[in-house]
Amino acid sequence: MTQGLTAISSQERISSIDFLRGLAVLGILVINIESFAYPDPWSPYKYGNQESLDHQVRFWVYFLAQGKFFSMFTMLFGVSFCLFIDRLSGRASSPNAMALYVRRLWGLFLIGVAHAYLIWDGDVLYHYAICGLLLLPFRSFKVSGLVIVLSVLVLLVAFNAIQSTQRTARQQNAFELAKAKPANERSEAEQQAIASWTRRTTRKQPVTEVVEVPRNSIWESIQVNASHQKVHKGALFYQGILFRTLIMMVLGMIGYRLGAFHDYRSIKGYWLFTVFLLVLALLVNYYRYDQWTFKYHQPVTQLWAGVAFAFPKELLGLAYMMLFNGLFQLVRPFSKLKGITNMGRMALSNYLMQSLICGSLFYGYGLGWYNHFSRSELWLIIPCIWTFQIAISSWILMNYDQGPVEKLWRTFIYKG
Q: What is residue 90's predicted lDDT score, i.e. its pLDDT?
């Protein structure tokens, strides 16, 4: 055991961070539950969209929630990174103090892999652990240095978005050129270009057929998870969201370095910037998810739209973070929402608990409600899970200092 350091006490915790983490975990359920409930949850026309009301519900859920609370959760990982590193720097008497941070990530990686293979293949924790290692070179960076790192990451994502939009525009151009030719003069490639673009731009018929309930036993569920996961093949993180994850983590680090979570007033013009960002983010997300929900058959081919639509989740996630952080510190009733704060203190346990609950509700080894509810009816279940988790978190923290998985994790870190 590394000497001289112990787990953080409840008196040392920053309440606003626990509150924000609790909100993030509650919001993450809104999207994650769809992966348990439907065969193709991301589709704007397949499954769960029986009525026009369901399309409207899907729009509002994706407009206000899809990726936003994941972004908040990711930012808070960056905040926790700084907190942990600063704590090591301030109290460590052992030359091996940094090993605690590596052990922390190793423990998180193991928890994430166990979650991914044994419970749900949509886990993000082991991905976070690898990203946490990538943050280490920036641990001593000042705000100016972190802004440079952030700018590079943003440019990389924007560049990829531009390339994707240009590919789509070229496909449209190839279609228009081929369509302009007489049918008997078109080459095979031109005919394929017409067929491909036509498929892409044709509004699909709703898919509502009966789907067999999957994962009829826990063992079968584990086998399915293992077939989807690739950690054992060396894929230790999600390549497609690596830069986005690091962007939000670095933003969390910047917010922490600026003192926003101790006192938002340390940032000049905090509320002006928050309101501006919130309005901008809502506008971008409205048009992005209106297109994704109702106009999915109209591909984005304009560069300005491709760039604007590159960061909708991240923009609104940051706006939510600033809004609720400020409100928690400014408005007394927010600081009295102990249930949400308790959710945040047990965020890791609650994240895993959500997977256990959803698996028990929707998979064959549980109640088998898979593809049983429409998008609107799913909202009969979500508040019930929220209420249960807030209640169980409050009960546990009345009797114990931390959640069960947090206890296991911290034992591994400090006593391993």
A: 61
